[in-house]
Amino acid sequence: MYDLIILGGGPAGTAAAVYAARKQLKTALITKSFGGQSINSLQIENWIGEIKISGLELAKKFEKHIESCAGKTLEIKKSEEVKDLKKSADGFEVKTQKHSYSTKTILIASGANRRKLPAKNADKFENLGLTYCATCDGPLFKNQVVAVVGGGNSAVETAMQLLSYTQKVYLFHREKVLKADPISVEAIKHDPKLEIIHRSEVTEVLGDKMVSGIKIKNLDDNSEKEIAVNGIFVEIGSVPAIDFAGNLIKLAAENTIEIDPWTQQTSVPGIWAAGDVTNAKYHQNNIAAGDAIKAIEDIFNYVKKKQ
Ligand SMILES: Cc1cc2nc3c(=O)[nH]c(=O)nc-3n(C[C@H](O)[C@H](O)[C@H](O)COP(=O)(O)OP(=O)(O)OC[C@H]3O[C@@H](n4cnc5c(N)ncnc54)[C@H](O)[C@@H]3O)c2cc1C
Fold it and tell me: What's the pTM value of the predicted model, to 2 decimals?
């Protein structure tokens, strides 16, 4: 039986594995892959200690760091996907497509997947002008014309950020009124560089090798028009990776895992969660790593108390 099973090999899972090894908890890290969501980012400029690093390079460093800690108390279960979690008499059973493991505690660090833009050619232009992360890719569009798709807080905050250095920002959303907090909407709506197009749905991404425009449908009269843009920022939500958790854990809004932000504990004693899978307010690589470390501190105390 393991003291701890960590689910996920993104920044949260990686940081947790390094700390668990240093604390000599008998641990298995189970992950489909290393690196997490920013693996596709061409340039990450805010991972502390690296001025600039590609997502792919960061993923390699995560894997290398985990491997350097493995052997004594840490086991790596690579290319395994967790399918089910169940309570057992003395802890939990974690089932993957290959094996079943017993553990006293679990840290869920399975992250999230961005909700993809359901428009023609959106997948073809991903990372070729269409992006799901303004913090990462926004500065590449300095002085250019960009579109933001979505009407919630992330879309409005993305527009706010882009307005400070782009030439023009279109904000396309489906409703008559933006869903974002009024205070955020108020902060941007009078900016002359912003054009909000209500009741619009993106139907197609246009371009040759890179994005050059966007086709939108007016949801009131079904008319379509094309608008030239250099970049498209999609902010229509994300989908937490929690299919395996079934009804075991209490979920918060938008199917994120509810945690106690003081300790990262979930509603189930013995299960912690960290990173984008949780209902933490902000989601970034450094935050995911820090929250996972907080969880390991708490898990260590829990395991030692039970011994
Ligand atoms: C394109 C893009 C670029 C970004 N760029 C930046 C940036 O520049 N700076 C920044 O700070 N943030 C950036 N972010 C946000 C950042 O990537 C996330 O906040 C961060 O990845 C969250 O880390 P995490 O460990 O919680 O989850 P994730 O990174 O989502 O990692 C989850 C891990 O769990 C594994 N996993 C999932 N389900 C299972 C399962 N069932 N079984 C086994 N393993 C599983 C996955 O394979 C993955 O290894 C970016 C996000 C995107 C989408």
Answer: 0.79
